[in-house]
Amino acid sequence: MTIRRLQLQHFRNIQSADLTPAAGINLLIGENGSGKTSLLEAIHLLSLVRSFRSKKLKNLIQHESERFTVFAQLASGDDQTLYPLGIQRGQQDEETEILFCGSRPSGVAELTAALPVQLINPDAFRLLEGSPKERRQFLDWGVFHVEPSFMPQWQRFQRALKQRNSLLRHGRIDPLQLQLWEQEIARCGEQITLFREQYMEALRPLFASLLKRFLDVDDFKLGFQRGWDKNMELAESLLASRTKDAEQGFTQSGPQRADIRVSLDGHAAMEVLSRGQQKLVVSALKLAQGALLSVVTDKQCVYLIDDLPAELDRHHRSIFCEVLEAQQGQVFITGVEAEALATGWQQPEKIMWFHVEHGQIQPGVQP
Ligand SMILES: Nc1ncnc2c1ncn2[C@@H]1O[C@H](COP(=O)(O)OP(=O)(O)OP(=O)(O)O)[C@@H](O)[C@H]1O
């Protein structure tokens, strides 16, 4: 879905904003600290009910205010039906209030499925060098959107894993009980891994063609490590590691330890690439996910690109703009200076410009 209208109240430094964005490219220009990232944060919140820079949602409430509200009207393609989505959080509230199409959603997954959002910000390179957990989140975001059975399998897997870990931690090595949970872990874990492998298989060619455009490289590898000994089935691996796991008090191998790795010419990408090149590799991964999403499900991903010009030269900025325009989803791009974002577009007349100043957001023409 795309965002037809977006309204914010008391969100970070934005007291009040009401935007009608374009279904394609939206450019937000403003000085440092004007509120551009805050707007992206609000859209991210609508999809995942969490911020990409604060652990506590209360931090998003404007100082001296009681609560924030983020409200959007979502629409799918040319469909005239609007799907209202609102999120509110107060200083005193125990819970975040969410209403989607007039009722409380069954879970965050319902919002994520309705509004798939991808963020590319100046920290994007961290996906390559950060913890495997971030890369698993990246991978599972994609699998979740294209494979409806992934989520229930993942939940069952997590429940069983928790039970096994609890038995191990309490030193209760009752083989029968362990076997029960290990069977469930193995059943769901093998299935989750199959979904992940199939997903990676489908992602590779899309990633390859984007990487070719961004960096002009052919010799790359997008590897997937499933999280346990490749010569064993998961059930065998769990059985073999019981004693070691009991010593540690948790399960050390399985899909909860999976990882992905990008290498070029046989070297890990993060070790041989510049910061700008790493940003392009991560962008290629995220754009490939969006492309795969639309091929498999017909859904479009909303892209949030914070400070697009950072670390990129003019040539690579242009390629980035062309790629974004071609993927036809809704995109919100921020930048400090309009000149850095003014060129490289094939259809500049379709772009919507917004000026952000001291928390005020106004539509405008290209400066
Ligand atoms: N809860 C809050 N209430 C009021 N203001 C806040 C709150 N949290 C952050 N701010 C302020 O909001 C301003 C906007 O921050 P934001 O990161 O959105 O700016 P930006 O336009 O993206 O800047 P940059 O170009 O430097 O990345 C900052 O000055 C920040 O100090």
TrEMBL record:
Domain RecF/RecN/SMC N-terminal: 3-344
Binding site for ATP: G30, E31, N32, G33, S34, G35, K36, T37
Biological processes, Gene Ontology terms: DNA replication; DNA synthesis involved in DNA repair; double-strand break repair; SOS response
Keywords: ATP-binding, Cytoplasm, DNA damage, DNA repair, DNA replication, DNA-binding, Nucleotide-binding, SOS response
GO CC terms of this entry: cytoplasm
Compartment(s) where it occurs, according to its Swiss-Prot or TrEMBL record: Cytoplasm
Pfam families found in the cross-reference section: SMC_N
Family of the protein in this entry: Belongs to the RecF family.
Described purpose of this protein according to its UniProt entry: The RecF protein is involved in DNA metabolism; it is required for DNA replication and normal SOS inducibility. RecF binds preferentially to single-stranded, linear DNA. It also seems to bind ATP.
Protein name, entry field: DNA replication and repair protein RecF
Organism (species): Marinospirillum alkaliphilum DSM 21637
